[in-house]
Design brief:
The complex is a heterodimer of chains A (554) and B (571).
Chain A lengths: L8 H7 L8 H6 L8 H7 L4 E5 L4 H6 L6 E6 L6 E2 L1 H14 L4 E3 L5 E6 L1 H13 L16 E2 L9 H14 L6 H6 L26 E4 L13 E8 L2 E9 L18 E6 L2 H18 L10 H8 L1 H12 L19 E4 L5 E5 L5 E2 L7 H11 L3 E4 L5 E6 L1 H13 L2 H7 L2 H4 L1 E3 L17 H14 L9 E4 L13 E7 L2 E6 L10 E7 L1 H18 L6 H7 L4
Parallel strand pairs in A: 6-7, 7-8, 16-17, 17-18
Antiparallel strand pairs in A: 1-2, 2-5, 3-14, 4-5, 4-13, 8-9, 9-10, 11-12, 12-15, 14-15, 18-19, 19-20
Helix pairs in contact in A: 5-6, 5-12, 7-9, 9-11, 10-11, 12-13, 16-17
Chain B lengths: L3 H12 L3 H16 L21 E7 L4 H15 L3 E6 L13 E7 L8 H12 L8 E7 L9 H12 L3 E2 L4 E3 L4 H16 L4 H6 L2 H6 L6 E11 L9 E7 L10 E4 L5 H11 L6 E4 L2 E4 H7 L8 H11 L10 H7 L5 H10 L6 E4 L10 E7 L2 E4 L2 E4 L1 H8 L5 E7 L13 E4 L6 H13 L5 E7 L2 H4 L3 H9 L5 E6 L9 H7 L1 H9 L3 E6 L1 H20 L3 H13 L3 E5 L1
Parallel strand pairs in B: 1-2, 1-3, 3-4, 4-5, 4-6, 17-18, 17-20, 18-19, 20-21
Antiparallel strand pairs in B: 7-8, 7-16, 8-13, 9-12, 9-16, 10-11, 14-15
Helix pairs in contact in B: 3-6, 9-12, 11-13, 18-20, 19-20, 20-21
Chain lengths: 554, 571
């Protein structure tokens, strides 16, 4: 089985954790620091939180003899990214009461809150619980939030496919009661007694992501997941899913053994029972064969490449007791959100709102958070999140559409969505500075400004209407999926980015490194030249990413 | 004329003496000559022996910082040497019922702040005030300690002196008011008082037994020149508070953990200029104030209290400008605006009636064992709203505005009642807000001493994130084991207010066991409501954990106080 000779430190922490309980309660009781113990920092991820600190404030606080400004990010488990209006109202108030107030829509269709200080964690989780929301297993070495094609208008079977997200999430949820005991005061806290046949006491070697796509739109970026399910629909009937394994984007600067990888389709299966069984056993194979000594090499993609996709499929088939069928044909021709109003097959209406980098907040110009609260309080719209960090006001009856439209209009959100440039609406960045401990450079705080400087260049070349997917991360871990973009920026140091080109428009081909460590003038200079060549040298309709490959820029 | 030895001694005596001391010596020698005697008879045993009836004397003291207690103790020793039967007691422990049995009664009492009694004397004073006159059997004398840089110099002593008289007691010797260098004046006065009550003929003999020592013992206040090394606001962005940690370099500075730094704040420049322009006076004009001459500008900037003049000063101001002015606290600028002076000459008369700026005391938050030649203080910038405008406390405003390398004068104010115990003893420290200051000093000292005793700190403030004063230092002390336990209470981080006393209660069993094994308990910070709440909580803990009745718990606390194991520095 896997090379477990020199287990990484985290493996020991997991095994000793008494079902993810660790010493979290003791850490919470420590009155002199806003942080929790190092081991507990690993464990609290399994409860949906990361400990962070405001890196901008470190020096000043040190001079004030104050400890780092520690806080926690909490991420909800929202399979397929869905909230009722009542839940949105609750989220709105929880964000205001306990966190920075900003509701951040993530690249995996969920929301997270930042800036919770230690003493606010429990009240936050308890308030979420009252709204039937939890943060179980949204971080850590487990199956994370399950992403799914977001827009119900995509297909009449959307609801059927969407239900899989929830079923998979429930199937793969850790069995430990630790979350309930620690955060919801459900007593016990003792030797773990619950058996967890899937995760045992070691969980997975690393995080595990599952995404579901409904062709022809690959908005969920299905191939970037450890496990991707591609819905196969014939004559309006869901036949089953193609299964893709081994996607994953994170790399490490300077580590040649790490690389981004897109998922490999290994076959097709049909019934719900079989699909769930297949999914489950992909996890058990990764659990048993994944690398547990080097966390940089422990994602499923390395296991697949180490043993081969054929071997992997055979191992999974052995465990499920049935074989996968040959993959069914499918075609992706889109990877985008349907901004604005759309109607589904049942006559329900949907408004996709552009939320730059997923940050829902009120500014003087744009009272987005207030408007969304107003909409939620009407009770007339559900809230869905997209993998591109946007928000879909959903399932609105025709008679209620006007009311929603009015609120959106009054807050300037219609204009905001309509007038944002194409490149901006197809851009995405991770959180990065100032809270992400991994960040080497800015992400969401900088990309909007950079886009503002790229827009006139596109304008100059008459490319403003061109759909070009741009993504930026502050480090090579890939949270905003920059390796699956046509233009990828990956931070190497403060103010410097590696520029990646040549990804395709639909998320089926990775980009490659074009130039290293560019500062802003260099980035703008390069893009000016590249856009100029593209404008004059492209074939009709040829996407920017394909042109880059054809011109051998990379 | 004198033998060399005597001459040397005489010259040493004279050359080291202050003007007042020379005057005293002059009078003393004159006295000796006038009774036609010599000092020889007094050299050995005391002339009291000539008085057959031993005198019974009670010395009581009201003390805040321990100075009055120390002095009273030394005076009692002097009296004993002279064959007087002396009883010594603190006013807080004195049984008031005994007053009817006293014959000679000496009160040594200090004055706090704006003419207030020390806390330990309040109970006695209030008791006496309730009594009917009828203490004619009681013969008293009051020794008042004070600080002449405060406006109401020795007011507490004066109050007790006049109250005793009011109640029919007879003053057997005049009141003596002593400044901060009190030792000499006090000893002289006491010897004179003793001699008067023993009616010995050889008055000189009584006071002459050790004049040289009293001169040597002179404890003049040493003024240090400090330079600000650094000043940082310990509170983070978003805090309602500003608390400055100021590190001051002062070569040769001497103090002990528990002591305070005294500083006379300067008036802000804008205020001085406004007063000058309203007065029309020449800033460079040299003016005499309380026997010292300086320019008006200097006087206004460094000596005189210009903000919130007390009513007594307002009254005098009204007399000078001959107008009706309501007697209420008001700033000089406002007075000058509403009731202007006629001319610069009249303003000079106003200057005469102004009171000096009182020095402010700040608990020292450093220890010499950790930072030689340095004093650190922890200053809460006192901010208040007056008529919609933000004002700052004069001294905290002054100190917090000092930038790096600016210089200012200060002195050390010893606090003998707030000292660390022996290194092996356990220490419990309760110091919310700036009450943390002396405990930072304590911890630095205990760290340097490698003290084996355990240390337990209770700290509290408004918000954990912004107001945890000295957080990283306390973390280090906790990690290295200097701090055995630390509990914090941040009142506004949750709906219910949580204060240090709540944390004490949560740790009741452990806290009581520390007390039972001899721990010393210190409280520093706001007198009200904090120190009251803390004491009530202590009573509850002792009662609940020790299975005691309310009275027994109160006795327990009293016993802690009397054994100097429950010490407070509250303000």
């Amino acid at each position: 089985m896997s090379d477990n000779k020199n287990l990484s430190a985290v493996e020991g922490i997991k095994q000793k954790s008494k079902g993810l309980r660790g010493t979290i309660q003791e850490s919470l009781r420590n009155e002199i620091t806003g942080s929790i113990s190092e081991d507990d920092q690993s464990l609290i991820k399994f409860h949906g939180m990361y400990q962070q600190d405001d890196r901008d404030r470190r020096d000043e606080r040190a001079a004030k003899k104050l400890d780092r400004l520690y806080s926690f990010m909490i991420r909800l488990r929202l399979p397929g990214g869905f909230l009722t209006p009542e839940q949105w109202v609750a989220l709105h108030h929880i964000a205001g009461d306990y966190s920075t107030g900003v509701i951040k829509i993530t690249t995996r269709q969920t929301v997270q809150l930042h800036g919770l200080i230690k003493s606010k964690i429990k009240p936050t989780i308890q308030a979420f619980n009252s709204a039937q929301l939890d943060s179980i297993a949204t971080c850590g070495d487990v199956n994370r939030n399950v992403a799914c094609a977001s827009h119900p208008k995509q297909s009449p079977v959307h609801e059927q496919v969407f239900a899989y997200a929830d079923k998979i999430s429930t199937l793969l949820k850790p069995k430990t009661r630790a979350y309930y005991e620690i955060w919801l005061d459900e007593e016990k806290i003792s030797e773990r007694s619950e058996e967890d046949p899937l995760y045992q006491d070691r969980y997975l070697p690393r995080k595990f992501k599952i995404g579901i796509a409904i062709p022809p739109n690959n908005d969920s970026d299905v191939f970037t997941n450890d496990l991707g399910l591609i819905a196969i629909i014939e004559d309006g009937v869901l036949q089953g899913f193609n299964i893709a394994i081994g996607g994953g984007l994170g790399t490490t600067h300077g580590n040649q053994d790490t690389y981004p990888r897109l998922g490999t389709v290994i076959g097709f299966t049909d019934t719900e029972e079989k699909v769930l069984k297949m999914v489950y056993e992909v996890l058990t194979v990764q659990r048993d064969y994944g690398n547990r000594s080097d966390r940089k090499l422990s994602r499923l993609k390395y296991t697949v490449d180490k043993y081969g996709a054929d071997w992997f499929r055979a191992e999974v088939e052995k465990r499920t007791g049935f074989k996968l069928e040959a993959p069914k044909p499918y075609t992706f021709t889109q990877r985008e959100d349907y901004y604005g109003w759309e109607e589904n097959h049942e006559g329900l209406w949907y408004y996709t709102l552009f939320v730059e980098n997923g940050r829902v907040l009120d500014t003087d110009d744009l009272p987005m958070k207030q408007a969304l609260l107003d909409i939620a309080q009407t009770g007339k719209a559900n809230f869905r999140f997209t993998s591109n960090q946007n928000l879909i006001l959903s399932d609105i009856k025709k008679k209620d559409k006007k009311k929603i439209q009015e609120i959106l209009d009054r807050a300037g959100l219609i204009r905001h969505t309509e007038t944002a440039s194409r490149i901006r609406k197809n851009a995405m960045a991770c959180v990065a500075l100032n809270t992400c401990p991994l960040a080497l450079a800015e992400g969401q705080r900088y990309l909007p400004d950079l886009i503002s400087r790229i827009e006139p260049i596109l304008e100059k070349h008459g490319l403003s209407d061109e759909q070009i997917i741009t993504r930026m991360t502050g480090c090579p871990n890939g949270c905003a999926r920059p390796y699956a973009a046509e233009i990828g920026f990956i931070g190497t140091a403060y103010g410097r980015y590696n520029l990646y080109l040549g990804g395709d428009r639909y998320g089926e081909r990775l980009n490659k490194l074009y130039k290293e460590s560019l500062d802003e003038p260099a980035i703008l200079g390069e893009l000016d030249t590249l856009f100029g060549e593209f404008k004059h040298g492209r074939h009709a309709g040829e996407p920017f990413g394909d042109f880059a490959v054809r011109k051998n820029w990379i | 004329m004198l033998a060399t030895v005597k001459q040397n001694a005489f010259q040493e005596l004279v050359s080291g003496a202050s003007h007042e001391e020379l005057v005293w010596m002059n009078g003393f020698l004159a006295g000796v000559l006038s009774v036609g005697g010599s000092l020889q008879s007094a050299a050995g045993s005391v002339a009291l022996a000539t008085d057959p009836a031993p005198v019974k004397l009670t010395i009581v003291y009201g003390t805040e910082t321990g100075n009055a207690k120390g002095l009273a103790t030394r005076l009692a020793a002097v009296a004993k040497q002279q064959g007087v039967r002396v009883k010594l007691a603190g006013l807080d422990q004195y049984r008031t019922a005994d007053l009817v049995k006293e014959s000679y009664f000496v009160v040594v009492v200090s004055t706090q702040g704006d003419g207030d009694l020390p806390v330990t004397a309040v109970k006695f004073y209030e008791y006496l005030k309730q009594q009917q006159p009828g203490f004619s059997h009681l013969q008293f004398a009051v020794l008042a300690l004070g600080d002449s840089s405060y406006p109401l110099f020795c007011k507490a002593g004066e109050d007790i002196d006049s109250l005793l008289e009011e109640k029919g007691a007879r003053r057997f010797f005049r009141i003596q008011k002593c400044d901060t260098d009190y030792e000499n004046d006090a000893t002289t006065w006491f010897r004179e008082a003793l001699s008067s009550l023993t009616q010995t003929s050889d008055r000189a003999a009584l006071v002459a037994s050790s004049p040289a020592q009293t001169v040597v013992q002179k404890t003049g206040r040493k003024i240090y020149q400090g330079t600000v090394l650094s000043s940082v606001n310990l509170n983070d962005q978003g805090s309602a508070k500003e608390t400055y940690h100021i590190e001051i370099s002062a070569e040769g500075v001497v103090y002990e953990p528990g002591d305070a730094l005294g500083v006379v704040p300067e008036n802000p420049q804008h205020l001085v200029l406004e007063v000058l322009s309203l007065s029309g006076a020449d800033p460079e004009k040299r003016i005499s104030y309380k026997g010292a001459e300086s320019t008006l500008l200097h006087l206004l900037k460094t000596k005189l209290n210009l903000v919130y003049l007390p009513e007594r000063v307002v009254r005098k101001y009204a007399e000078v400008v001959q107008q009706d002015i309501p007697e209420t606290r008001i700033g000089l600028v406002d007075l000058l605006k509403i009731y202007p002076v006629k001319d610069a000459a009249q303003f000079e008369r106003i200057v005469e009636i102004l009171e000096p700026v009182a020095p402010r005391l700040y608990s020292i938050s450093s220890a010499l064992s950790a930072n030689e030649d340095e004093v650190h203080i922890t200053v809460a910038k006192d901010r208040f709203e007056v008529n919609g405008e933000t004002g700052y406390g004069l001294c905290s405003g002054f100190l917090s505005s000092l930038s790096e390398s600016s210089a200012f004068s200060f002195y050390i104010h010893p606090n003998r009642q707030f000292r660390l115990p022996a290194p092996e003893q356990d220490v419990i420290m309760i110091g919310p807000g700036t009450g943390i200051a002396p405990f930072r000093s304590f911890l630095a000292e205990r760290d340097a001493q490698m003290a084996s005793g355990r240390n337990w700190l209770f700290f509290g403030d408004q918000h954990f994130v912004t107001d945890f004063l000295y957080q990283t230092e306390l973390q280090n002390w906790f990690e290295t084991g200097v701090l055995t336990r630390i509990n914090t209470a941040f009142s506004r981080d949750q709906e219910e207010k949580v204060y240090v006393q709540h944390k004490m209660l949560a740790q009741a069993a452990e806290l009581y066991s520390w007390l039972e094994t001899g721990a010393y308990l210190y409280v520093c910070g706001a007198k009200e409501p904090m120190s009251i709440d803390v004491e009530n909580t202590l009573l509850r803990i002792v009662s609940e954990q020790g299975g005691k009745t309310e009275d027994q718990a109160a006795e327990y606390i009293e016993w802690l106080k009397q054994s100097s194991r429950y010490l407070k520095d509250v303000y």
